[in-house]
Specification:
Helix 3 runs parallel beside helix 5, helix 4 (130-147) packs across helix 9 and helix 12 (405-417) crosses helix 13 (433-444). This protein has an 11-stranded mixed sheet, sandwiched between helices. It is globular, with a radius of gyration of 24 Å. Strand 17 and strand 18 form a beta hairpin. The chain is 33% helix and 24% strand. It has 508 residues and is α/β, with parallel strands linked by helices. The structure holds ligand UAG and adenosine-5'-triphosphate (ATP). Residues 40-43, 54-58, 62, 172-174, 200-203, 206, 226, 230-231 line the site of ligand UAG. Residues 124-329 form the Mur ligase central domain. Pathway: Cell wall biogenesis; peptidoglycan biosynthesis. ATP binds at residues 126-132. The modification N6-carboxylysine is found at residue 242.
Length: 508
């Protein structure tokens, strides 16, 4: 892989050619200096770093810190009046740009020498099912690659990132451009061929994936979500951001069962090829005959080239939709069908539809990540069909200071479909947990009085499990295997819901 470094002058030209430069100062003696690192975080700066200043939360102190640590030039939308000099006495260079997010994507692509072009890239967007589909792809690809004795595929998701060098819990669904291109670079360096990733609406809106072409782009579904002062200001903005994916993929895989399918299909024409999937015989990848038997969900798929029964051993009937997406993506990548079958049969996704039972007990406890209107409705409908005649207990909460409509939506849905409800902490942040719980309770009460507010999440889970009889499914939603709770402005380490469940079911 090419590992070429570029000089400050070359970075300047790159931005200049794109019409991004508003003003610049690069002293003559600095023009030929090679940039050896690129970052937007002062904590990571080392010698000869090109430092990107971005964001409403940026402070000039970070720039001062960066210069002390070895930054030789900063890129910013704002000019900072600093009297800082580099340790060797030369002046600090700067390039002021008119669009820092676009500039960041360009710089990242250039610094990492377009590593992504050596990968087969799969980009998945949608309101729900992105992580699951990305992991389904990883299972399928890894089956295929194992047979060829090649390295496992890479993944960039809201759960974990793996690129052959880094294996970490992720903090964003789609990382900022500089981190994203670093993952591409690491993957190529590790001889990895395929990378599956989630592409969030925020990523598309803020150009985190700008300039990258996906071999396959997948659109799963769209529902009202992420509409708030800090995310999208309207559904239209959210929807349009998601549709931008089609302008940067070679093949578009589209769920024809999604809401607004007509508009999605129209936008998908921006891609050279479209493959549709869904539970509708008009779909190119058509799924039907869905049957749950024991722990296995079977379904049949018809495409142009095969009719075949597939199996999922992961719970959640809605996962058939995600599996159809993965089948559509895999066929467009010419992955032989036996590997698709084997991958899907094995697939598990951390913190999504994890089913636990205690020794000598018949109660099912499911840890899942449902936390918005679409996933709550889907989860309840699916659970009712999958576990007919069982009562449903749910443990859930809502986050502080964002997505306020969830308190009403989730409260009403839970109230309508559950037999017992425990309302608890879920990333309350700067709002008191009890206030959020009481607000949710007002909406639960429209349908049932069978609820309790237990702000301590562990205690809520303990109560839900110990009070459940053998004829109950206990749903513990919203956090999956996350090990942090947002309290105040900080993320505090906590045990995951899975750990609590194992503790109170007395399993290892
Ligand atoms: C903290 C925060 O609210 N950040 C949001 C804000 O970013 P920002 O650039 O203005 O602010 P910032 O991230 O705090 O940046 C401050 C800068 O100072 C730097 N810094 C900070 C400390 C220090 O010591 N030194 C230093 O250099 C930081 O590295 C950073 O570059 O404004 C950006 C554009 O509006 C947002 O993308 C970004 O969202 C953060 C990253 C975030 O968590 N966003 C969520 C909503 C998000 O993106 N979610 C999607 C999933 C949702 C979906 O499906 O759409 C995702 O992809 O994860
Ligand atoms: N295709 C689907 N349609 C509706 N709900 C789904 C679908 N797939 C998964 N879900 C529900 O949404 C939850 C989150 O799934 P997943 O993590 O795969 O989605 P995501 O798009 O990555 O979500 P987020 O943006 O919240 O990280 C699951 O735990 C499940 O309850």
């Amino acid at each position: 892989m090419e590992n070429r470094l570029h000089s400050l002058e070359e970075y300047y030209s790159l931005l200049e050619q794109d019409g991004l430069v508003a003003e610049a100062q690069i002293p003559l003696e600095n023009k030929d200096r090679n940039v050896t690192f690129l970052t937007f975080n002062s904590k990571e700066v080392r010698k000869e770093t090109l430092f990107v200043c971005k964001g409403n939360h940026f402070s000039p102190e970070y720039l001062k810190d960066a210069v002390k640590k070895g930054a030789i030039c900063y890129i910013s939308q704002e000019k900072y009046e600093l009297d800082e000099f580099l340790p060797d006495g030369s002046g600090l260079s700067y390039i002021i740009v008119n669009d820092i997010r676009r500039a960041m994507a360009k710089l990242a692509n250039y610094y990492y020498n377009e590593a992504w072009k050596s990968l087969k890239l799969i980009g998945i967007t949608g309101t729900k099912g992105k992580s699951t589909t990305a992991y389904f792809m990883k299972f399928i690809l890894d089956e295929y690659l194992k047979d060829q004795k090649k390295p496992k595929s890479a993944i960039v998701s809201g759960i974990d990132n793996y690129d052959g060098v880094i294996n970490e819990e992720s903090h964003l669904t789609t990382p900022e451009a500089i981190e994203l291109h670093m993952h591409f670079h690491n993957a190529v360096k590790s001889d990895i061929e395929y990378l599956s990733m989630e592409v969030s609406s925020q990523a598309l809106k803020y150009d985190r994936t700008l300039g990258v072409t996906f071999d396959v782009g997948c659109f799963l579904n769209v529902g009202e979500d992420h509409i708030s002062d800090i995310e999208h200001n309207s559904f239209e903005d959210y929807f349009q951001s998601k549709l931008r994916l089609f302008s940067q993929c070679k093949v578009a895989c589209v769920n024809i069962d999604t809401d607004h399918a007509d508009r999605v299909l129209e936008a998908a024409k921006a891609a050279p090829q479209i493959i549709t999937f869904g539970l509708n015989e008009k779909a190119d990848v058509y799924g039907y005959d869905i049957v749950k038997s024991g722990k296995t969900i079977s379904f049949t798929v018809r495409t142009d080239s095969f009719v075949k029964e597939f199996k999922l051993t992961m719970a959640g009937l809605f996962n058939v939709q995600n599996a159809l997406a993965a089948i559509a993506i895999s066929t467009s990548l010419s992955i032989p069908v036996q590997y698709i079958y084997a991958g899907l049969k094995k697939a598990r996704v951390s913190g999504r539809m994890e089913v636990y039972t205690g020794k000598g007990s018949k109660v099912y406890v499911i840890v899942d990540y449902a936390h918005n209107k679409m996933s709550f409705e889907t989860l309840f409908q699916s659970t009712k069909k999958e576990y007919p005649n069982r009562k449903i207990t749910i443990v859930f909460g809502c986050p502080g200071k964002k997505a306020f409509s969830r308190r009403r939506e989730l409260g009403e849905i839970a109230g309508k479909y559950s037999d017992q409800i425990y309302i608890t902490e879920e990333d309350a942040g700067e709002e008191p947990v009890i206030n959020i719980c009481e607000e949710i309770a007002q909406h639960v009460e429209k349908h049932t009085k069978k609820y309790a507010i237990i702000p301590d999440r562990e205690e809520a889970i303990r109560e839900a499990i110990t009070n459940a009889d053998d004829n109950t499914v206990v749903l513990i939603t919203g956090k999956g295997r996350e090990t942090r709770q947002k309290r105040g402005t900080l993320y505090i380490d906590t045990p995951s819901d899975v750990e609590y469940v194992k503790k109170y079911l007395k399993i290892n």
